[in-house]
Structure formats: structure tokens, C-alpha cells
Amino acid sequence: MAVDSAEPAAGYLVVRASGAAAARQAMDAVLRGGRVRSDPDQLQVLLRAALPKLPPGGVSLSFGECALRVRGGEHQPGAVLLSVATSKLSVGFAELRPLLFQPVPLARGVQALVASSVAHLLAAGDAVDPHGARAYVIGLVELVLRSALRTELDRADAIATRRRAAVDFIRDHLADPALTAARIADALFISRRRLYQLFDDGDGVSGRIRAMRVERAKELLADPAQAVRGIGEISRQCGFANAAHFSRTFRKAVGATPREFRERVLTT
């Protein structure tokens, strides 16, 4: 029995919609940042756990709206696939979006609890009442999802906090032409690699600095009180090495030179 062709590494889980059509719809919503038109009928949680020795083909158990499939791995934790009807979960499918279709870290304690729960369920065999087992598996899925969701949201919040701190530092030091990723990382007490990860959703750190300098320049050029200042002075105030570099960068981003932009804005 093949649990999955792309099993997560030990210590991680993957949450996905069951069924090709539902999976495509959910994935499309995640990528586009939109809403899933309707919740999928089934949700699957795939992870690894330390399990007792299993038959070569693994074990598959079904309890009405939920199912458990396990396969033992040689020299590594076994693969566990928990399936449950979405309607049976107290946490909504939309709330689980941060977990969908990506490896999500699972705390060691939760990993151990899942391994123990699955091992005991397998050991009980036919002695387990199907209705009780259904509630047991649904509860286990709930626990795993809620624990993983809390970890992921905490991680996302930490990333957002660090990113805001980096942006604030950049804003406060825009006028310094020597502003670099190394200096920002040192100020935040993080590695440059970690800093790059905070800005891996766009043009990177240098791109963010450049974009913020252009925005600052637009503000100054559009301010009538700054009209007496020359283009070179504004370029220095925004941290550009020289007026020529400022003009090239500004024109590429805005579609007009700084002088053209100022004339257009101030005469409108």
C-alpha cells in the first residue's frame, strides 16, 4: 500500500485536500490568495511517526468519515496518513490555509503523541469499537492540526515582526548611501541569510531599499516646500550615490526623470 509518493521529512506534516479536483481548487485558492468556492469533503494529514513493525503492505483502517493508513519505513519513521471528513472538524478549512500543501514543523511532543496514539490503535485491532475509534481519530486530527496551526501562526508572526523591524531600520537610514544588507542584519542581530529570507517574496533586500528610496524621492519632489532644492540635493537626501544614478533608477521605476516628475506633479 502506497501512502504517498511525496512523504514529508520526519518532524513535519503536510495538510492537503483529498481528491484531485478538490486539491486543485484548494491549491489554486492558496496561490491566488482567494477563497475556496466550497470546502473539500475530506482533509488529509500526512506525517511520519515511530511505529511498531508492520506488514509489508502496511495497514489500512476505516471508521466511517475517517480513515488511518500507515506504512512502516525501513531505518526511518513510518508514514501515517490520517483522513477525516472536513465537516467533522471544529476548525474551518479556511482557517487551515497557512498549513496547506507545504511541510509544516510539528513539535516533538505532538510527534510522540501521534506515534503513541497510532501504535495503540493498531495494537487494539478488532477490539476497538468503530464509533469510538472514529471519534478518537477525529480528535487526533484536531489536535495535530490545531498544534501545527499555532506553531505556524507564531512563526509567521515572528517573521512579520522581524520584517517590520528591518523596514523601519531601512526607513530611518535611507539617506545613508552605505546602507547594506550586512548593516541591517547586524542592527537586528540576525544573519544575512536570515535577513534575505525575510525579503524572499519580492526583489530582495536591495530591491526593497531601492523602492523605498524612490518613494521617498517622489514625496520630496511632489512637496512644494521642497521645490527650491535641486535634484542632486534630493538624490543625496534619499541615499543615492550621485544624481546620475538617481535619475536612472527613478526613471526606470516611475517612467519619468525626477525633473519631469516634479514638473508634472507641481504644475497639475
TrEMBL record:
So which domain of life are we looking at?
Bacteria
Question: Which interval of the chain is the signal sequence?
Answer: none
Q: Which UniProt keywords apply?
A: DNA-binding, Transcription, Transcription regulation
Tell me any Pfam family this protein matches. Answer: HTH_18
Q: Determine if Transcription is one of this entry's keywords.
A: yes
- Coiled coil located at which positions? none
State if Isomerase is listed as a keyword. no
The molecular function GO annotations come to: DNA-binding transcription factor activity; sequence-specific DNA binding
Tell me which residues make up the HTH araC/xylS-type domain. 164-264
Q: List the SUPFAM superfamilies.
A: Homeodomain-like (SSF46689)
Task: Return the protein name.
Answer: Helix-turn-helix protein
